[in-house]
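FORM 7B: Structural annotation worksheet

SECTION A. Query
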Amino acid sequence: MAEVTAGQTAFGDATAPVATIPDTVPAGCYWWTDPDGDLCLMPGCMARVQDPEAECNCDKLARRQQKAEEVLRADRGRQAYADIWWQALSTAVKDHPDANAILADARRHAGR
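SECTION B. Predicted structure
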């Protein structure tokens, strides 16, 4: 597969189109030459769909997705810790001699 060169602004730009087959199509916007030799744009973002000369947003969208995945991983880590803490706390309350009184008090504080 082709590489991004120093003169290219993106993978497969208009000055250096990418030779592709269906198995090697890049994820973002890219330029390619069809079998007749015509230069064609395959847009990967809405900005380029509306205007082929517009700035490509694919890298920005990929970065936003990466940030969202990082936040999701952090949330899952916090949830895993909370689950462990909840199990430990539940076990401690259940094993306590006054478990029923503690649970009744907790229900009262929760408004149940």
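SECTION C. Observations
The CA atoms of residues 92 and 99 lie 9 Å apart. Confidence is low (pLDDT under 50) at residues 1-10.

SECTION D. Sign-off
Analyst initials: ____
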